[in-house]
Amino acid sequence: MKHSILIIGGGAAGLAAALSAARSNPDAQITVLEGLDRIGKKILATGNGRCNLSNESILPMHYHSQSPARLEQLLSDMSTGRVLDFFESVGLYCTAEDMGRIYPYSKQAVMVLDVLRLALERSGIRLVCSCKITGISRRKNRFAVTSADGQQFYGDRVILTTGGRAAPKQGTDGSGYPLVRALGHRCTPLYPCLVPLQCSSPVLKGLKGIRAVCRITLSCGRTKLAEELGELQFTDYGLSGIPALQLSCCLGRLSDGEPHTVGIDLLPDWSYDTLRTVISQRMHRCPGETLETFLLGLINKRILYAVFKTCSLPPLSHPAASLSRKDVDRLISALKNWKFPVTGTLSWDHAQVTGGGVPLTEIDNSFASVKCPGLYLAGEILDTAGDCGGYNLHWAWCSGMTAGAAAAQY
What's this model's pTM, rounded to 2 decimal places? Predict the structure, then answer.
């Protein structure tokens, strides 16, 4: 009998695993089982439809896991060149843009999926769609896999690439976790990552839709957790934009202890002293002007109104000379560290990736399970979440390739 490999999940990791397995063992019988009516649906949504599929700078600092040392070990074999070589081998050429982000030359996510589908067809890999897997067991060194409609599949090896819980409409609804637990694995707590932050403040509704380049810092009590610089988007519920999404990966589950807050530096290029000098010069130059006009040109008007409101400063119709020294101190403090309490994040429907999952200590360097012989795990089901910029797809491709090649060895 041919060596048989079942791959549960037809996303980025699953497709990379299938192709890698076929190359390592052309005689193997490889079947991809996908719960949706087509493979690769989540790939089409990445990079705003352009598919940011990797990054030139693959470093541990761009990833989040409860096993950082193990993560660093695994990443050491995941060079950017490995992903570029993989895609060149299936006919897709890529280019790097700002911040090292790598895209296909066509800037089309659909092109990425098209070349993968063609490569699967050329390799004779069987695709079974609309096949949601609900059960898995290991019997006499083989696996039995059962679908929701009662179909049975058998394999010598199983690669689990079901994804996490983020973006359930694209097929990642958390259905892989019961399967992996049934085979002896555990999962660290799950939480949505790369998701907008919910904040508590009455001024947010008036700021909806405004974008501003800011430095944003996440703190828990007095402890600084992380900071990001970039274009922040204010919403009626909180904060969005890449900086806010990045910080959500450090948030985890909100605890009942110290509160989480974000501090926004609205003028990140200026120091406190520089800002104080600018404000003092304006006050002396135009003492009779209103507060609204003497700060004109500094920041967005609506943001300025909101800052004054939260600082309990004199109305903008008052003259600039009416500001006391304490008023100026409060204004500078707010412009450089405008604080909002964080109450949570938006739901899994709005998240791009899952935090938490199967601990990295429960796989070896080939992504084989240390709990269940013959089982391999790859992609988002593992406890690894990357920043924006192609890091999550990079993890999916590389972990899938490694698992596929190892599972094909008979």
Answer: 0.94
